[in-house]
Amino acid sequence: MADKPQSSALQKADTPEYVPDPGAAVVPANPVQNPGMPPERPRVTDLDPKWEKQAERRVAMFFMLSIVGSIAAVVFYVMFPIIPGNMPSVRLNNMLVGLGLTVALLGVGFGAVHWAKSLMHGHELVEERHTTRGDEETRQVAAETFTQANHESGFTRRSMIRNTLFGALLAAPIPAVVLLRDLAPSKDPVALLRQTMWEPGLRLTRDPSGVPIKASEVTIGSAFHVIPEGLPDLTYHKIEEKAKAAVLLMRLPAEDLNEDPEKAGWSYEGIVAYSKICTHVGCPVALYEQHTHHLLCPCHQSSFDVKEHCKVIFGPAARPLPQLPITVDEEGYLIAQSDFPEPIGPSFWEREL
Ligand code: FES
To answer: How confident is the model at residue 178 (pLDDT cuts 50, 70, 90)?
Structure first.
């Protein structure tokens, strides 16, 4: 094969007087001669339209296989659901969904490679190094290259391949939509967060010992970390229940409490109980400042005023801490009057309040 002629840029650079422009291409003083490329050998698909048509059908078949794989992944996901606590169902679901996704991705991959190998032109191209932005001539050449590539690959001409490729690419994300659905809560979050362990008559006990608390033990200025009676004895979901039901208990001089008349019966002789779960993003509100009667969340410094039903006085939290209505039983132990009247913790889309 004859040597390829040197480009004008290389000819200019290959002289003793040439001083390279800083930032431009690195041109060695004694460049290795370009051995050139082996001659292009035409493929059967270049020579025979029958083979060309066959290759085109094969490419389209790969893309269609990809569509089938995507749909199969969704069908398998629905037909073989994961049953909570049933490991074989998890394995079967993962295996079949994985198989569908594998076929979908491999179909697109094999189709694209086969298209390039058998139908697109295979001749070598020489690309000159140049500065980042090409001159007008280069840009025009680039545009011509795109046009030529389009012509050679037949992207606009081979409508069957193009359309099946579009179909495969459109179908490929469908399994992701179904799989992402699993990120949603499995149960209604309103019901989950509205309901905690607290119920009428349940005693307030110390965290973590579970010892019931008498109203007489709660002195002015003191604060108790509280959990519902019976929580330490739970075998299952102890952490989840604690994360929802944890409460802070404080006693203020009764005259300091500026209570809403509708909620006046929710405290007992200046003793008030509020959810410990911050309404910003759910950190435990753990710091009580007894002189100002402020609660502080250490995560992002939201402050709540206990005197004013824990309304937010500073920070990113948007809602007051929910109050737990309390009273005492006949033995003087603090008990809940009911569950929290509203969902605890951060706001969420489905929350009505
Ligand atoms: S979680 Fe309490 S302020 Fe952010």
So the answer is: confident
